[in-house]
Amino acid sequence: MRAQTKLQSLVTAAILAAAITIMTAFLFHVPIGATGGYVHFGDALIYLSAALLPAPYAVGAAVVGAGLADLLTAPMWMPATVVIKSLVVLPFSSRGERLLTRRNAAATLLAGAITVVGYYLAEGLLFGGWAAFLMSVTGNLVQAVGSAVLFLALAGVLDRVDLKQRLYVLLQH
Q: Coiled-coil regions in this chain (predicted)?
């Protein structure tokens, strides 16, 4: 990868990290239970990052964006978030000309499962009990499904305006 392309990917990742932080911490941020967890749709932008950027940059955008959101709102979740969001981006692919591919649509299911299981395990480790299963799983399922639907809609719209090609052309000049 050329140095200019690396810099462009880094800048795009930084912009997406900022958008993830805002979407997660401030827009549709609904606290759930007594554990400090919350439902948000910032994962939709994490999915978008993973479909747009090469994996290392997508992981960076996800970890920085979601990590900062947790630092601002529920810091005890930050270590778990860094691990979980790193894993969430891996099923997606940024290869190809489209954001919305069969693989990326299917990846939302795996990413949702990683989120639900990851935060359930983190909650058990943080709070020493596994009894809050329903509250944790229900909230994380809402978050995963909502983020998947939002990503699918957003990716469809961005594909219609040919975002990946336009971004590629813009960044080459």
A: none
